[in-house]
Specification:
single chain; 224 residues; 2 strands
Length: 224
């Protein structure tokens, strides 16, 4: 019940952001933050090495890197006989890509034009694909890993690292001038919502086919 409430809240937030963006009510917010991160429209704040570091962080949310990580993770899960985790990772990743492309095509928001793009962008702007991919993939992977760990502090640490990666990747897209802040907020929200939905479905399917999973979930443990 709590998961469904969280899913509904995430979708509500996304719809609210999307509505404000289409009404052009977020321009003051988006433009203000983009310009605050620049000494000049073509010069981000910070030394050259910092720009380079941010570009590398941004790359962690690219389609190529995400695909590689997912393939490695799924391969390990299959070898370890964690088939439902492998299915969860695949469905989350493939679905994220599909939802992202459909959303971009629906809203058709162009990339920011008030600052120079440091990292060459591709396609449309809303929602941020890097932010959506990182929120869905890294958080799903973090939760999957956390469920295999014996100590609570280790589980918290792993999930916190996943959230931090998604957060930094989203921020990097704004710093590089290729996304508005609301693009990133929408990407995070939609990515988390999709990952949560896939997790709910995967758990329900697993309970139907494996009574041990249902018992373990009730006890807060995981037999796989």
């Amino acid at each position: 019940m709590l998961e469904l409430a969280a899913l509904g809240l995430l979708l509500l937030i996304f719809v609210k952001i999307a509505h404000e963006v289409t009404e052009l009510d977020t321009d003051w917010f988006d433009h203000g933050i983009l310009l605050a991160l620049r000494d000049a429209p073509n010069d981000p704040i910070g030394p050259p090495w910092f720009e380079a570091a941010v570009m590398h962080i941004s790359g962690l949310g690219s389609g190529a890197v995400a695909t590689l990580i997912v393939l490695i993770a799924v391969g390990y899960m299959l070898l370890a006989n964690h088939w439902r985790y492998a299915l969860l990772m695949l469905s989350t990743s493939l679905g994220t890509g599909l939802v992202m492309h459909l959303s971009k095509g629906f809203f058709e928001r162009p990339r920011p034009s008030i600052v120079t793009h440091i990292d060459p962008p591709g396609g449309l702007s809303f929602p941020s694909g890097h932010s959506m991919i990182s929120a869905a993939m890294y958080m799903t992977l973090a939760v999957v890993i956390a469920r295999t760990l014996p100590r609570r502090r280790l589980r918290i640490y792993v999930v916190a690292v996943g959230a931090l990666l998604a957060f930094l990747i989203g921020l990097s897209r704004v710093y590089l001038g290729v996304h508005y802040p609301t693009d990133v907020l929408a990407g995070w929200t939609l990515g988390l919502a999709w990952a949560l939905l896939c997790g709910i479905i995967a758990r329900k399917l697993a309970r139907k086919v494996d009574p041990e999973v249902a018992a373990a979930d009730e006890a807060g443990d995981d037999p796989s």
